[in-house]
Specification:
Layout lengths: L1 H37 L8 H6 L7 H5 L3 H10 L1 E2 L5 E3 L7 H12 L4
Antiparallel strand pairs: 1-2
Length: 111
């Protein structure tokens, strides 16, 4: 009986630790890759963010304006304006799992 209760407990704990590690990795990726323009809080109140007119990612209305798939595409391929000027470069050296974690991190910025 103890073995059957222990296995689900161990698996659940392992999944929780993996999720916590993934969240820490996403924050590290945000700090390293995104915060220069978007700011640590996602508000875009950096010199570059203000120059580019970056939207406040902590604003619920802004977050409602894009789907996760669009965020993934922006991270993988970058963003350009209507004149084909680069607004955001694509992220490099990130796996699909890393990018998904980063999108989840961005969703967590919502106030």
């Amino acid at each position: 009986m103890k073995k059957t209760l222990t296995l689900p407990l161990v698996l659940g704990l392992g999944m929780a630790l993996a999720a916590a590690a993934s969240a820490a990795d996403a924050k590290e990726s945000w700090d390293k890759t995104c915060s220069k323009c978007h700011g640590a809080d996602g508000k875009g109140q950096t010199k570059i963010g203000q120059k580019l007119g970056i939207k406040d990612l902590s604003d619920a209305a802004v977050q409602a304006g894009f789907k996760d798939e669009e965020a993934v595409r922006a991270l993988k391929f970058g963003l350009k304006d209507k004149d084909d000027k680069t607004l955001m470069k694509q992220v490099e050296g990130m796996s699909d799992a890393d990018i998904s974690g980063l999108v989840a991190y961005v969703r967590g910025l919502k106030k």
